[in-house]
Design brief:
Helix content is 35%, strand content 28%. It is α/β, with parallel strands linked by helices and 333 residues long. The protein has two domains: 2-75 and 151-219 and 304-332, Rossmann fold (3-Layer(aba) Sandwich); 224-298, YebC, transcriptional regulation domain (Alpha-Beta Plaits). α5 runs parallel beside α6 (165-178). The structure holds adenosine-5'-diphosphate and magnesium ion (MG). Residues 40-41, 81, 157-158 line the site of magnesium ion (MG). Adenosine-5'-diphosphate (ADP) is lined by residues 11, 14, 16, 34, 36-42. Keywords: ATP-binding, Nucleotide-binding, Transport. Residues 313-333 have a biased composition (Acidic residues).
């Protein structure tokens, strides 16, 4: 278990982390989500003992990260944003180097290295120079070094940045696998990534914690209004006439056209949007108007993030992109 109390970090005039307090329980995959510059890396560098805080307390299983550094650090495996790989070494040589630095006993060295090589599926690459590996494999080597010593918590700082879509899927699968044996903290500025892998989410913005919840609760707790999307040939006037009789619908609005069809969004304060879908269906049938689409609109994490930070939106929000916009064509060396 990790407890963070009143953590702040100042770089000159910049308050990168602003009075953060939270607890990480054992056995879950946590998403640490926020736009670029939110303070994710700074926080993770402090939790892992790589950077000094300006103020605040961090305890790993009761061990203070400064006062009992050795005990605390043993419990954490960390893959920083920019992993310190030595590209002239092979993964096997590099892992041996890290294992020794971590103080793993000589007798266990070989079996421990074999274990992490197996867990990260880099068997076939273990004797190739790291500089000849793809970015996806390099990231696996980075994760392998974090796993050495079998720490209970694995912290990964934006592990999928710069990977192509296929590599992203493979690394995500690997992280999900790790989640079965370790507590995992995964930082990301990609909303769908957190939604795909994590059970719990911490959203950080301008150094402050703005949300801490189960990923499944997020939509429910924030959205007071549900929306239902319909597609029909009916004009706005006709739709208004039909739904006028449904009390559960508070308002509606035309969104787009698709061939001869029009799309509308209906808002409802009712908790269960499926019940409202049923009412809508019956109303259209009663008027003999076909609906070609009728479904509740799921609130995405993106909508939630915008809702949460709308009072202080700035250009940083533009940096929260989807995976595909994120993907940059990078040359394999
Ligand atoms: P994130 O990982 O969420 O993108 P960071 O923790 O890297 O955010 O940065 C948080 C803020 O602190 C940013 O405004 C960044 O410019 C600033 N910052 C980070 N590292 C340094 C540093 N070494 N010196 C000065 N400012 C820094
Ligand atoms: Mg970062």
């Amino acid at each position: 278990m990790i407890t963070v109390e009143h953590l702040s970090k100042r770089y000159g005039d910049v308050l990168a982390v602003d009075d953060l307090s939270f607890t990480i329980e054992d056995g879950h995959i946590y998403g640490f989500l926020g736009p670029n510059g939110a303070g994710k890396s700074t926080t993770l560098n402090i939790i892992t003992g790589c950077l000094a805080a300006t103020s605040g307390d961090i305890k790993i299983d009761g061990h203070d990260i400064y006062e009992e550094e050795k005990e605390a650090k043993k419990l954490i495996g960390y893959l920083p944003e920019i992993p310190p790989l030595y590209v002239e070494q092979t993964p096997r040589e590099y892992l041996k180097f890290v294992a020794e630095a971590k103080g793993i006993a000589k007798a266990e060295l070989e079996s421990e290295i074999n274990r992490v090589i197996q867990e990260t599926h880099i068997e076939e690459m273990q004797n190739r120079l790291i500089k000849h590996l793809s970015k996806g494999y390099r990231q696996r080597v980075g994760i392998a070094q974090a796993l050495l010593g079998n720490p209970s918590v694995i912290i990964l700082d934006e592990p999928t940045v710069g990977l192509d879509p296929m590599q992203i899927i493979e690394i995500r699968d690997l992280i999900s696998e790790l989640g079965k044996k370790h507590t995992v903290i995964l930082s990301s500025h990609i909303l769908s990534e957190i939604q795909a892998i994590c059970e719990k989410v911490l959203i950080i913005y301008k150094g402050k914690l703005v949300v801490y919840d189960d990923i499944t609760n997020l939509g429910k707790s924030l959205s007071s209004e549900n929306e239902i999307e319909i597609m029909t040939e009916a004009t706005e006037e006709k739709v208004s006439e039909v739904i006028n009789h449904i009390d559960a619908i508070s308002s509606f609005q035309q969104t787009e056209n698709f061939e001869k069809y029009h799309c509308y969004k209906l808002s409802t304060a009712m908790e269960n949007p499926y019940e409202v879908c049923e009412l809508v269906f019956r109303a259209f049938v009663a008027n003999s108007i076909p609906l070609v689409k009728l479904n509740p609109v799921q609130t995405s994490l993106e909508d939630i993030f915008i809702e949460l930070t709308s009072s202080e939106q700035d250009s940083e929000l533009g940096e929260m992109d989807s995976d595909y916009e994120e993907y940059e064509e990078e040359e394999e060396e």
